[in-house]
Design brief:
- The structure is a single chain.
- By secondary structure, the protein is α/β, with parallel strands linked by helices.
- It has helices at residues 73-93, 114-126, 139-144, 146-152, 176-189, 203-219, 237-245, 259-270, 283-292, 302-305, 312-328, 336-356, 361-368, and strands at 60-66, 102-109, 132-135, 156-158, 169-171, 194-200, 222-229, 250-253, 276-278, 296-300, 372-374, 379-381, 398-403, 406-412.
- The protein contains 13 helices and 14 strands.
- Helix 1 (73-93) crosses helix 12, helix 5 (176-189) runs parallel beside helix 6 and helix 8 (259-270) runs parallel beside helix 9.
């Protein structure tokens, strides 16, 4: 579904914005809530060197492909879209980027389908001619769109990791190796010597499964059982019975969304009696999973753990975003981590645009590859060989557990 664009900013969108370089006054970087980067005073065609009128300054067009329907919608992409909209509003309220407003010129429903996601990306490139693309959490869609955005030289952010060697895709979410390190570090801290791995049949799931297997081998932890399940399975009781029969010391997974609840219910029905450790999700999903299977532990991202965040710079970045999100959502922060992906993604792009003096193409791609940005999910240090930006920064994540309905942090890798 393509959404209608509201307000004056929707007018005059004719294609890509031209590259824009800062004038004599330079780029003014403003602290914007959680540290957004905004600039003003850049001249454009038809304007004076002082910047001209707002109508003479073309907008920066953003295209989004995210799941508003299907299994990835409620727990991942809908809050992700909310974070995007909050960030666009905040940056535009502070003057935009180099005086150019950000416009969500097309928001397309990915329908939790990789094929639809790829079709959306092609539409955003070839029909909507957007400056940048932001994609939701479908890992297969992200990987499959890599060649299209590279050919078009259109920078694209993804929640999931981009393929190895990707040139124009950048991850703006929690580091997969970091999250797995949390899971395996917690297992080691409890002196557990064997695990069962429940993989999900997506690119994201297979990446996580491979890292878990590698770390387990390096740490001398036996993988007693491995299985792969569908991302849309509705009953995993038989799967968890097979897991139980392998007698692991703990169970780890690589799934996200409603499947976590299905897995927890399956574990309870199978009579499993060992810790179940789940990878990232929203806290409301983890809560429902814990109600079904109380011996549940999970990767907890910094906005979910706040204020229990030991990194002072990260806690400082989270505080205004957390307060804003909480106030706008009636105190409900269950989906804040997914919203933070959208918030960080927009601010990362805006910071790179200010750095590059360009809103798309090779100049923006080069600036993204050199960007250091303190987000609300992590410190990001991107490079030509690290488009996830988190390989060389402290692991900000932790392991959480519900006790009496309240989230408690039980392990911190850093």
């Amino acid at each position: 579904m393509r959404h209608p664009i509201e307000g004056k900013e929707a007018l005059n969108i004719t294609g890509r914005s031209p590259s824009c370089r800062p004038g004599k006054t330079g780029i003014l970087v403003l602290a914007l809530l959680a540290a957004g980067v905004v600039a003003a005073g850049c001249s454009s065609p038809g304007s004076s060197s002082g910047g001209g009128t707002a109508s003479a300054v073309p907008p920066i067009t953003i295209g989004v492909s995210a799941a508003e329907t299907g299994y990835l919608s409620a727990s991942a992409d809908i809050p992700f879209l909310k974070g995007i909209k909050y960030a666009v509003s905040a940056i535009n309220g502070a003057g935009g980027v180099d005086g150019h407003k950000l416009v969500l010129s097309a928001v397309l429903d990915e329908q939790s389908s990789a094929a639809t996601g790829v079709a959306n990306v092609n539409q955003l490139i070839n029909q909507d001619h957007v400056d940048v693309i932001m994609a939701g959490s479908d890992s297969t869609a992200c990987a499959s769109a890599e060649s299209a955005v590279a050919a078009a030289q259109t920078p694209m952010t993804c929640i999931s990791p981009p393929p190895s060697g990707s040139t124009y895709q950048f991850q703006v979410a929690a580091s997969v190796p970091g999250m797995v390190a949390d899971e395996m570090g917690y297992i080691k801290s409890r002196h557990i010597t064997s695990i069962a791995l429940v993989n999900v049949s997506t690119v994201y799931g297979q990446i996580i499964g491979k890292i878990i297997t590698g770390l387990a081998a390096a740490d001398g932890i036996k993988v007693a059982y491995t299985t792969t399940v569908s991302a849309t399975a509705t009953d995993l009781t038989a799967t968890m019975q097979a897991v139980k029969a392998a007698h692991p010391g703990a169970v780890v997974d690589s799934m996200t969304g409603p499947e976590h609840v299905v897995e927890a219910k399956g574990a309870a029905a199978a009579g499993l009696t060992v810790p179940l450790i789940q990878i990232t999700d929203t806290t409301n999903v983890f809560q429902e999973s814990a109600q079904a299977y109380p011996d549940l532990y999970f990767v907890t991202l910094p906005p979910q753990a706040y204020p229990d965040v030991p990194d002072a710079a990260l806690a400082t970045a989270i505080k205004p975003f957390w307060s804003m999100y909480s106030s706008r959502n009636g105190g409900d922060t269950a989906q804040i981590a997914a919203a933070a992906y959208g918030w960080d993604a927009v601010h990362i792009l805006a910071a790179a645009m200010a750095k590059a003096g360009a809103f798309t193409g090779p100049k923006l791609q080069a600036a993204l590859q050199e960007l250091s940005y303190q987000g609300v999910n992590s410190l990001f240090e991107f490079s030509a060989t690290d488009h996830g930006g988190e390989n060389a920064v402290p692991n900000p994540d932790s392991i959480g557990h519900f006790v009496g309905g309240k989230l408690q942090i039980v392990y911190n890798a850093s």
